Amino acid sequence: MLNKLTYFKSADGIEIPSYDFIPDKPAISSILLLYEIFGVTEHMKKTAKMLANKGYLVKIPDIYDRLEKEVVLPYNEEGLKKGIILKKELGWDIPVMDIVSCAALLKQNNKVTVMGFCFGGSLAWRSAQKSFIFDNAICYYGSSISEFLDKNLNSPAIIHFGKNDKSIPPNAVEKVKRFCNQQNYDIKVFEYDNADHGFSCDERKSYNQEAANMAMDRNLDFLRSFN
User: Fold this and answer.
1) How far apart are CA 78 and CA 206, in angstroms?
2) pLDDT tens digit string along 90-135?
3) Is 38 in contact with 79 (CB distance < 8 Å)?
4) Residue 1: what pLDDT?
5) How far is the C-alpha of 118 from the C-alpha of 75, rounded, in Å?
6) What is the DSSP track for 122-159?
């Protein structure tokens, strides 16, 4: 598995860095991995390496780069506050543009999955709504997904929520479920017992190994169905 830093040009001509994880054998397909509000953390890199070792070409676009270089925030209150500031300053339209621009490069040679966690989970959802470039989408605990029910999803998708996640209350999950049931594509919503926001990240206090493993197994089964 090869790991390297590359750059791609977004639709507005700005160059954005991308952390690339390349499998040793020809890629099965590609995954555009969108990070949490905390940036390119070791958790994101470990996830990318694991997926690359499964045979997928993985790119992590550094969408914070327009604001600050090489943002990596700690998993604490200070890091959360800083991440919220960056997220608000960045908005939604600009990162979606960057994500779709990055996906266009991958699409030349591979099918493309958009997979996102936390902030990235909402961005993955929004990107799959506002473009037709993705073959499928995987969204982890995106707290803004329930706010983005204005457009249909343009691909199959799976969504992961923790039942103990106070940032995504049950009524928001139910809204998302009703919306998904009305879509033309198959969109599955999974909820995990005793799982809080960030349950898939082993660097956070909310890490739940059982839920994390179950969700990733579902992701891999989902991806294999498109190979």
Assistant:
1) 17
2) 999 999 999 999 999 999 999 999 999 999 999 999 999 999 999 9
3) yes
4) 81
5) 13
6) HHHHHHHHH-S--SEEEEES-TTGGG--SS--SS-EEE
